[in-house]
Write a structure and sequence with these properties.
heterodimer; A: mainly alpha; globular; B: alpha/beta; seven-stranded mixed beta sheet; 16 strands; about 40% helix; about 15% strand
Chain lengths: ~80, ~425
C-alpha cells in the first residue's frame, strides 16, 4: 500500500464522525457541497487532521482545499 | 445554513438576458428571516431607541425599557463631567476633523486622549483608532506580515479574523481557551518565523475569560509576541481596571493591549497600548490608522474625561460585580442554562435550544420592558442560540430584582423553565 493510499484511509476515518449524510467518499467529494459542512465542523475536523499527522494546515491553505483528494495531497506534502 | 445552499446552480436569473444578481447569494438568509418574521415576532435586529433616559433606561416603541444589553459596563454615557467635556470640545474645536491622524486630523484632544490611556495603562505608548474594529484590523494586519504567523483562538471576535484577512500572514487557529492546543500548534511552526498570538481577556458571546497566565507562558516558551483584546475587560477587571490580564497578573508578558471606547468608556473609538520601543512607527505604516478620518474632537474629549474617571471607580466596579453575580445566581436558581458555571465577567449568556424559542423569549422580555441581546450562528460558538445580558454599574439592586422577575415570567410563558 502506498503512503498516499494510507493517508486517504486515515483521512476517511477522520471524516466518518462528521459524515452525517453517510456519503460514500471519493477523491472528488467536496466538503462544502457533498458533506455539507459548515465552518464549525471544518474547524473541528481540521484540528483532528492536524493532530493525527502532527502538521499545521493554515487557514490560508484551507481556503484552497475543496475536495478530499486535495486534502490528502496537502497532508502528503506537509508530512514530507 | 449549509454553504451548499449557496452554489451558483441555485441561482435563478431574473431573465435570461441579464447578468446574475449579486444579491442572489443572500436568498437563503432572506427567506429564513422572512419565515421567522411571518410567525409574528419582532425583528431582534432592528430595534430603535426612541429616547435614552440613562445608561440603564430607554423608551422603545413608547415603553420604558430596562437596558440589559448595551456593554455600557461602567455607565459613563451620561456622566456629567464626560458630557461637559464633549460639549466644550464641540464649541472650541468644531464638529469634526475632516482628516487623517497623519495629516490635519490630530488635535490637542487626540494627544490628550492618548496621554489619558498611557496614564491609565502605565505604558510608554498609546495609539487611538476611529473604532475598536479598526484597532484590531490595524494592529493585527500590520504586526504580522508575509511569512509571519498569527495564532488565534477559534472563538475570536470578527474584527480579529478580519485583521487576519487584511494582512498577508499565515493564520493558524487553536481550540477555544485550550492551552494544550495552543502549545501543540506553536510547536509545529518554524522556530525562526515571527509569531503573534492573539487572545481576548473576555470572550463576549458566553462571557467566559481566558486562562491568560497559562497561555502567556506557552506563547513565551515558543518565542511569540502576544496581543490581548480587553474590549470587555477594561474598567472593572484588575486593581486599576485595565483588564483580565491585570487581574491575572500578566502585565509584564502582554506585548500589545487592544481596547475600545464603545464599552466601559462610553463613546466610540479604539486603541492599542504597548511598551515596545519601536511602537510609534505604526502611525506611518498602519493603513486602518492612516487612511481614515480621525475621531471628532468631542469624542476624544469625552473618552479622555471618562478614562481618567475610570481610574478612580472602585465603588462602581464593586457594584458591577455584585450585580453580575446576583443576576447569574438568580438565573441559575430559576433553572436557565447559562454559558458559564459562575459569573466570570459582566456578560451573562442564556443558552436556548433553537431560534424560535430564543426569539420568543427575547420578545416576551421586550414586551415586559427588558432589552437583551440576541445572538445566533455564525456569530456564536458551536452554533448556539443565545440571549446575552450585559450588566451596568448603574443598574440598581431594585432593577436587578425586576430583571429576574421578568426572566421568570418570560421563561415560564415560553416554556423554557418550569
Amino acid at each position: 500500500m502506498t503512503t498516499r493510499t494510507e493517508t486517504f484511509g486515515k483521512v476517511a476515518d477522520l471524516i466518518e464522525p462528521f459524515n452525517k449524510k453517510g456519503i460514500v467518499l471519493a477523491e472528488a467529494s467536496t466538503f462544502a457541497g457533498d458533506l455539507e459542512w459548515d465552518s464549525l465542523t471544518v474547524m473541528d475536523f481540521v484540528a483532528a487532521v492536524e493532530d493525527e499527522f502532527d502538521i499545521i494546515i493554515t487557514m490560508n491553505m484551507q481556503a484552497e482545499i475543496e475536495t478530499v483528494g486535495q486534502l490528502v495531497d496537502a497532508v502528503e506534502k506537509l508530512k514530507a | 445554513m449549509s454553504e451548499a445552499a449557496l452554489t451558483p446552480e441555485d441561482v435563478r436569473l431574473a431573465d435570461a438576458g441579464a447578468g446574475r444578481d449579486l444579491f442572489s447569494k443572500f436568498d437563503a438568509l432572506i427567506a429564513e428571516r422572512r419565515a421567522l418574521l411571518d410567525t409574528g415576532v419582532r425583528d431582534p435586529f432592528s430595534i430603535v431607541m426612541d429616547k435614552v433616559l440613562s445608561p440603564t433606561r430607554a423608551i422603545i416603541q413608547g415603553r420604558e425599557t430596562i437596558l440589559l444589553g448595551t456593554y455600557n459596563y461602567m455607565g459613563m454615557t451620561f456622566d456629567p463631567d464626560v458630557v461637559a467635556a464633549g460639549k466644550q470640545a464641540l464649541d472650541e474645536f468644531g464638529s469634526g476633523t475632516t482628516g487623517s491622524r497623519v495629516l490635519n486630523g490630530t488635535y490637542q484632544g487626540h494627544k490628550a486622549c492618548e496621554d489619558a490611556l498611557k496614564d491609565f495603562y502605565g505604558t510608554d505608548h498609546a495609539i487611538v483608532f476611529s473604532t475598536g474594529y479598526q484597532a484590531n484590523l490595524g494592529m493585527i494586519s500590520t504586526l504580522a506580515g508575509k511569512g509571519d504567523y498569527i495564532i488565534l483562538d477559534a472563538d475570536s471576535h470578527a474584527s480579529i479574523y478580519d485583521g487576519c484577512w487584511l494582512g498577508n500572514a499565515e493564520v493558524v487557529r487553536f481550540r477555544h481557551n485550550s492551552v494544550e492546543d495552543l502549545d501543540k500548534r506553536l510547536g509545529r511552526l518554524p522556530k525562526e518565523a515571527g509569531k503573534l498570538v492573539v487572545l481576548e481577556g473576555v470572550y463576549s458571546m458566553l462571557g467566559d475569560i481566558a486562562p491568560l497566565p497559562e497561555m502567556v507562558a506557552v506563547a513565551k516558551k515558543h518565542g511569540a509576541m502576544i496581543l490581548c483584546d480587553e474590549a470587555h475587560g477594561m474598567g472593572f477587571f484588575g486593581p486599576n481596571g485595565r483588564g483580565v490580564y491585570e487581574e491575572l497578573g500578566c502585565e509584564k508578558d502582554i506585548d500589545f493591549v487592544v481596547g475600545t471606547f464603545s464599552k466601559s468608556v462610553g463613546t466610540v473609538g479604539g486603541f492599542c497600548v504597548s511598551n515596545h520601543p519601536k511602537f510609534e512607527v505604526l502611525r506611518l505604516v498602519c493603513r486602518p490608522y492612516v487612511f481614515t478620518a480621525s475621531l471628532p474632537p468631542s469624542v476624544v474629549a469625552t473618552a479622555a474625561a471618562s478614562i481618567r474617571k475610570l481610574m478612580h471607580a472602585g465603588e462602581k466596579r464593586a457594584h458591577l460585580w455584585e450585580n453580575s453575580r446576583r443576576l447569574h445566581q438568580g438565573l441559575r436558581d430559576l433553572g436557565f442554562t447559562l454559558g458559564t458555571e459562575t459569573a466570570q465577567s459582566a456578560i451573562i449568556a442564556l443558552i436556548l435550544p433553537d431560534q424560535e424559542t430564543t426569539v420568543g423569549m427575547w420578545q416576551a422580555l421586550l414586551e415586559q420592558g427588558l432589552y437583551v441581546n440576541m445572538a445566533r450562528p455564525p456569530a456564536t460558538p458551536a452554533g448556539m442560540y443565545l440571549l446575552r445580558c450585559s450588566l451596568c454599574a448603574e443598574h440598581s439592586s431594585e432593577q436587578v430584582g425586576q430583571i429576574l422577575a421578568m426572566f421568570a415570567a418570560a421563561g415560564r410563558a415560553i416554556g423554557v423553565i418550569d
